[in-house]
Design goal:
Layout lengths: L3 H11 L3 E4 L2 E4 L1 E2 L2 H6 L8 E2 L3 E7 L4 E6 L7 E5 L7
Parallel strand pairs: 3-4
Antiparallel strand pairs: 1-2, 5-6, 6-7
């Protein structure tokens, strides 16, 4: 089972300001959890979120992470691959 503290290190370690998208380098926009929650669904921009992992639920096919940075009372849910590496 994943421990939230370890996942936070892995998530922050894997975050970068740039991501590859179909061979092109694309900049990621840094925003708070509050700003990310205010965006409409289906938004197609890359974002970088930094915060605390509040909970982790491991399922067979996916991993659910709830992230909060203190800017909102709501958590941002991240759906990740279950083989997310920890440090």
């Amino acid at each position: 089972m994943y421990r939230p503290g370890k996942l936070l290190v892995a998530l922050l370690g894997n975050c970068s300001r740039h991501h590859r998208n179909k061979g092109h380098l694309v900049s990621a926009v840094r925003m708070s959890v509050r700003e990310a929650l205010a965006k409409t669904e289906g938004s197609s921009i890359n974002i970088t979120i930094q915060g605390w992992v509040r909970s982790v639920r491991s399922q067979k096919e996916v991993l659910f992470l709830h992230i909060n940075d203190g800017t909102s009372t709501e958590n941002l849910q991240i759906v990740a691959e279950p083989n997310l590496k920890t440090r």
